[in-house]
């Protein structure tokens, strides 16, 4: 009985978070922030910056300790603002972030995306890859595609990305990796706290960091349990545990290699993912705007699940976030055949041997990769945490499992460091949030929700398509083009609920030009 009561007491993760939401109005221009009340609050402080600003500056408001709202009347229509709310209560500091604004226009041109495709998938997934490129262009990306070999060196693949970036650094914004493109490893780390796991971890951020110095001559650690994590000079694994400079490019990967638990080939798992992502983008299916938090570390002093509580209220509203009972069914059962826009789950990491191969295949009370293979997990954007499986380049890995079946489109290991997704609430793609998290040196506090004051960051990784946004718009249908005297005319059927359309022209790989001043 005492355990059940403890499960429903407010956790350290909830105390470390301010669950923000916002209501805006145009005339008079006003933004109103809201948050749930917290007992014994002693102070609340509000900061504001423009989205692009890199510091918060002085506080803009000091609501009373009992307040649950803050009204900002000094705002400009069309400007994207980001707010930080800091609450002191019971000796604990809670923080929340929200990106909001009034009639902020979404960009028609998002930049150039380097598409790195495993060349073993080029033939069998030809139609799906063609559709992907069309979807990316429809969402405002210029696609720079390169097919690459599984045996290529990571440095040669990074050079491909660097060549694109150096030719147009203002516009090349993202890298999307499809298939088992060679995985960089870096560092001498064990962010999960296990001594036998200290060593190099996968480091996809290497493909997004364009001008730092990556070395392979100082770390000399041959003691890790798995050979993949051992890191010695000259072995092709880098020394850096922190990115050597700011990461310039958003990076995301869909890699379903060596996932036999799902009973399908790697090719078919990738095909399923690409089709699922396409259908999401064109609103063939739409998840329910709700979230679930399954925090099996609720009892810890460290606020491991704060990435869930800080972000989810911004995305779906605090009243639409379910605090799951960890003493009920296991998490995988609670999301089976359900529909959630966002999920978070955490528990002690599991290991299992398959023959002589050690796998990182689950988390206590959450589930296993095999559980995901036998059910239909209903989360689209997924965060999870537990020992081991944040090291994702291994057989039947649990972090990659949500992408192999069900509704999963993204997955990340969130707690050490903390992740910040609030920009997605105002239409940004998840790759933007990934880069902001990789580059967080204190703009968003705390940097980590773990037991240390700081955290290495080279292991940060997004499993999934970095172009994904949480809310999509149905495309027009029945598009026809007539050409009279060299002047094209376009006709289409508008999707329900759309106010109008802009028309854009692609100029090869150079960029996108908007042809309309006002929506048609």
Query: The CATH topology of one domain, please?
Result: Immunoglobulin-like
Oligomer: single chain
Number of H/I helices: 9
Largest sheet, order of strands side by side?
14-13-15-19-20-21
Q: Helicity range of the residues?
A: 10-25%
Q: Count the strands?
A: 25
Helix/strand class: alpha/beta
Looking at this structure, what is the CATH superfamily of one domain?
Immunoglobulins
Strand content: 25-35%
- Give the overall form: globular
CATH architecture of one domain: Sandwich
Distance between the termini: 62 Å
Helix/strand layout:
Layout: H1 2-8, H2 12-15, E1 21-25, E2 30-34, E3 41-50, E4 69-72, E5 80-89, E6 92-101, E7 111-118, H3 126-138, E8 141-148, H4 154-167, E9 172-178, E10 185-189, E11 199-202, E12 250-254, H5 266-281, E13 291-295, H6 306-316, E14 321-323, H7 331-335, E15 340-346, E16 349-354, E17 357-363, E18 367-368, H8 369-374, E19 379-385, E20 410-413, H9 430-438, E21 463-464, E22 477-484, E23 487-493, E24 504-506, E25 512-514
Parallel strand pairs: 7-8, 7-9, 9-12, 13-14, 13-15, 15-19, 19-20
Antiparallel strand pairs: 1-2, 2-4, 3-5, 5-6, 10-11, 16-17, 17-18, 20-21, 22-23, 24-25
How would you characterize the overall build of this protein?
- The longest helix has 16 residues, at 266-281.
- The chain has helices spanning 2-8, 12-15, 126-138, 154-167, 266-281, 306-316, 331-335, 369-374, 430-438, and strands spanning 21-25, 30-34, 41-50, 69-72, 80-89, 92-101, 111-118, 141-148, 172-178, 185-189, 199-202, 250-254, 291-295, 321-323, 340-346, 349-354, 357-363, 367-368, 379-385, 410-413, 463-464, 477-484, 487-493, 504-506, 512-514.
- It is 16% helix and 28% strand.
- The protein contains 9 helices and 25 strands.
- Helix 3 runs parallel beside helix 5.
- With 520 residues, the protein is α/β, with parallel strands linked by helices.
- It starts with a helix and ends in a 6-residue tail after the last strand.
- Among the domains are: 2-101, Immunoglobulin-like (Sandwich); 477-514, no CATH class.
